[in-house]
């Protein structure tokens, strides 16, 4: 009996870089034509974080425009990433896939009543025309604190992967895991879950040019981020022995691919629909809000005050780089607020001892942090910018090297007390420890979901109406 060739194509972590989508579609159509001519089977998957609310199309359609694009690609299955799971409200996520032509697979998510979401299956089994049976399981990164605030219960991914792998292993010829867990987790799974054959990974944005093969013979693939690459695995299946003979894994750089015209037209239509949704007027400004990234301005001061009031804290703290553009006087629409503050970042309340608050303020005012250009942690801007406080005053002087030396700190007019616990309203990206390590010592961190920082801004702007 002859060998059978099966081709897997996988995308991951597009993060709504939709300018790449017509190129992806062009590539997939070209490959499909070749495989059809050769009589070879093709399956396509997406491994999460397709939808990112940084893009106005995603924001204006609540992610459903992304799903319409995914329908074009003929995905057999998809799973969710943290951008689908924790940047949309529960109601939005429950509605996200209502028009999907593919089946979402996800094993480690339930609602607070212990029920699995109606839009996902814990596993899927497909029988190809030649009788080959393909099993698919999936898991997403367990951001437990965030999911709980959205009335979800995210389960341990290792436990659920093992559970469902054992359930369907004897029912399928090839078992594929869609993993939005990151490369290190995938490597561990490839050594510990013998039932798996293929892991299609995501989340950590690794590019694996030739895949990774574990000591157990499990092949891992991951195709970077932003739609720059499409992953491809060519599987040789030995029919007589009922086993995989060989897997050739690679990624294809499609940045120079000629875009598919039909996909471009569809994308334009969805953008127009989203733009229409975002034209809703939130408020009317009597005065413009000016913006500076490296010193205080009216716009950043307003946002710092807003987050203090929203979180009901003694101190407000935001970085000026959260705001990308000033706002002119006149009508302010949802689209304007998304343009100036596109980050999928949430407000957060910290309880921080005075000695650590002092350390955090010192760290926040360093040139290194102010000028830091970062990507990730939900931040979609260019530079961190000056840290803007509400309720904090400092005395100090500028040193010859350009650093500002803080001598004294006052909280709402009173000298900072080392042993006292203070409440700080800020944004969640500072709670992960990378930017401001002293935040790790917070007595408590309280996140506010599903509101994003632009929702706080909209709320504050409405209070300015006369």
Write a compact overview of the structure shown.
With 466 residues, this protein is of the alpha/beta class. The protein has two domains: 3-275, Metallo-dependent phosphatases (Purple Acid Phosphatase, chain A, domain 2); 280-463, 5'-Nucleotidase, C-terminal domain (5'-nucleotidase,  domain 2, Alpha-Beta Complex). The protein is built from 14 helices and 25 strands.
Give a verbal description of the structure:
By secondary structure, the chain is of the alpha/beta class. The protein folds into two domains: 3-275, Purple Acid Phosphatase, chain A, domain 2; 280-463, 5'-Nucleotidase, C-terminal domain (5'-nucleotidase,  domain 2, Alpha-Beta Complex). The chain contains 14 helices and 25 strands. It has helices spanning 21-37, 56-61, 64-72, 82-87, 90-96, 144-149, 157-168, 183-192, 261-277, 298-311, 334-340, 354-364, 367-370, 453-463; strands at 3-11, 41-46, 77-78, 103-105, 109-111, 120-121, 123-127, 133-140, 152-154, 174-180, 198-201, 212-213, 219-222, 229-238, 243-253, 281-285, 315-319, 330-333, 347-353, 387-390, 392-398, 404-411, 414-415, 421-427, 444-447. Strands 6-4-3-2-1-14-15 form a seven-stranded mixed sheet, with helices on one face. A hairpin with a 5-residue loop joins β21 (392-398) and β22. The chain is elongated. The termini are far apart. The model has no long low-confidence stretch (mean pLDDT 95).
């Amino acid at each position: 009996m002859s060998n059978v060739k099966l081709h897997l194509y996988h995308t991951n972590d597009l993060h709504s870089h939709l300018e790449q989508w017509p190129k992806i579609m062009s590539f997939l159509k070209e490959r499909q034509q070749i495989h059809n001519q050769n009589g070879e089977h093709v399956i396509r998957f997406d491994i999460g974080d397709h939808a990112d609310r940084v893009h106005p199309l995603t924001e204006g359609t609540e992610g459903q425009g992304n799903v319409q694009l995914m329908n074009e690609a003929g995905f057999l299955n998809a799973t969710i990433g943290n951008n689908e799971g924790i940047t949309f409200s529960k109601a939005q996520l429950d509605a996200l896939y209502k028009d999907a032509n593919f089946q979402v697979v996800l094993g480690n998510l339930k609602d607070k009543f212990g029920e699995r979401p109606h839009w996902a299956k814990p596993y899927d089994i497909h029988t190809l025309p030649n009788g080959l049976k393909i099993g698919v399981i999936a898991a997403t990164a367990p951001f437990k604190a965030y999911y709980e605030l959205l009335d979800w219960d995210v389960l341990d991914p290792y436990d659920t992967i093992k559970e469902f792998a054992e359930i369907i292993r004897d029912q399928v010829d090839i078992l594929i895991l869609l993993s939005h867990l990151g490369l290190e987790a995938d490597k561990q799974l490839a050594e510990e879950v013998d039932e798996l054959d293929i892991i299609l990974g995501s989340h950590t944005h690794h590019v694996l040019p030739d895949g990774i093969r574990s000591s157990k013979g499990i092949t891992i693939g991951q195709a970077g981020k932003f739609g720059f690459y499409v992953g491809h695995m060519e599987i040789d299946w030995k029919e007589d022995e009922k086993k995989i003979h060989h897997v050739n894994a690679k990624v294809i750089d499609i940045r120079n691919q000629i875009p598919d015209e039909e996909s471009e037209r569809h994308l334009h239509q969805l953008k127009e629909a989203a733009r229409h949704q975002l034209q809703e007027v939130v408020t009317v400004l009597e005065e413009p809000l000016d913006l500076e990234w490296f010193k205080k301005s009216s716009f950043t001061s307003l946002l710092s005050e807003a987050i203090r009031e929203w979180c009901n804290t003694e101190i407000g703290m935001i970085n000026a780089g959260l705001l990308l553009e000033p706002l002119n006087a006149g009508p302010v629409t949802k689209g304007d607020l998304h343009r100036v503050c596109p980050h999928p970042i949430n407000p957060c309340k910290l309880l921080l001892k005075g000695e650590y608050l002092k350390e955090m303020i010192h760290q926040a005012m360093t040139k290194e942090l102010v000028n830091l250009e970062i990507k990730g942690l939900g931040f979609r801007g260019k530079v961190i910018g000056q840290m803007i406080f509400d309720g904090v005053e400092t005395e100090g002087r500028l040193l010859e090297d350009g650093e500002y030396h803080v001598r004294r700190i006052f909280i709402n007019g009173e000298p900072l007390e080392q042993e006292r616990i203070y409440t700080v309203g800020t944004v969640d990206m500072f709670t992960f420890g990378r930017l401001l390590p002293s935040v790790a010592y917070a007595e408590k961190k309280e996140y506010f979901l599903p509101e994003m920082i632009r929702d706080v801004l909209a709320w504050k702007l409405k209070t300015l109406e006369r």
